[in-house]
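Example record

The entry below shows one chain as it appears in the dataset: sequence first, then structure tokens.
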Amino acid sequence: MALPSQIEHSVGSTHSFAAKRRQRNTGLIVAALVVVAAGGTYAVWSFKKTPTPAQAGTETGGTVTPPPITPPEKKNEFVKGDAGIPSEPVRSNETPGVGEPPPSVPSLSMTGDPKPQANAPDGTKPNPVNVANPQANPEVKPTDKDAPNTSTTPTTPTSTLTPSISGSAVSEWISEGDRKYASGDLLAARGLFSKALADSRSVASDRDSLRDKLSKISDELVFSNKVVAGDPLTETYTVAAGDSLIRIARKRDLATDWRLIQRINGLKDPGALKVGQKLKLVRGPFHAVVSKSAYRLDLYTGSPDDQETWTFVKSFKVGLGTDNGTPTGTFVVKPASKLVNPHWTNPKTGEHFDDDDPKNPIGEFWMGIEGVGASAVHKGFGLHGTIEPDSIGQQKSMGCVRLGDQDIALIYELLCEKISVVKIEP
């Protein structure tokens, strides 16, 4: 809040009276009364001109920044479910420290003039803004010689864009987004395409096209090693002495897995970091919306408490439960449930599959989900891989959501325990 402004007061001209030899006492009294009256008028005028703190804040354009959203803590426990959760959860090859409580969710609701993010030695966190409406800014690339991408020329997309057939307003957003995309302004294009995709007036063919366009944009803005100034989802980090990928993720309060840092920066050995090396970080959080009828998982980013502001990222094909066994509802990634290379016991037959068993139907990754509100009755469900790639797009699981090996590996790195929302829709 700005301080009240300082007001300079001009001194009015004074009146002098010629002294007279025979001045009476009554003249002195009259003069004193005149001075007192003038002083009172001046004080009232000064009081009216002085702004109140609220007025001063309004005049200077002051804003109040909302506090970050911190999800409620949930009890850390495993429930042996009815739909295929590993009966004896283990962390076969997790790096020490990964199982600690996840970071609090960063707020994505702030507005203002986006600035490039950089790590601060004192541990301060960056201020992300609404992903769907960032200001367009020039691209910023890592300058370290070990950074995989060192070009400073903005990438201009060359793919053909599908014309829109939606209503006039939605069509205008799509057309403007196409122009921004063609000119290389991917942040502006993402905002316009996201707005059009979320609008109920968009037709099915346009929604399919918009998901495709936004997926291509995400391949450059999210999943490459490029950092674009003004993008609240990413930042550039400079490696310090004693850093590891796990420490960096924790230090920067990321709502993503440390393996994502390795992936997008093309690091062959995550333990071979160099002091001064530049890394791209993706903040998150990410969420999943599963459409059962389309056998599709749509990945979004945004605040978990405000789905209206979510920005579409990418789509993945999924497999579902036999006989429509996958429940609908709202879930959250369960605490301490993310597992790499788990062993599993079939709850129906009792057959046990060890980790590294090529016949283990769970695959390499497991993420348990727990229902929220009315969905809390659904227990034991999760997202996992598969050893039957042909089952993707079909109903062949015990109720869980299956993804292909490469897809579940990426989803594992993006979804965060206790924060990421998973919505399953008809």
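Notes for this example: The first helix runs from residue 25 to 49. The chain has a mean pLDDT of 75.
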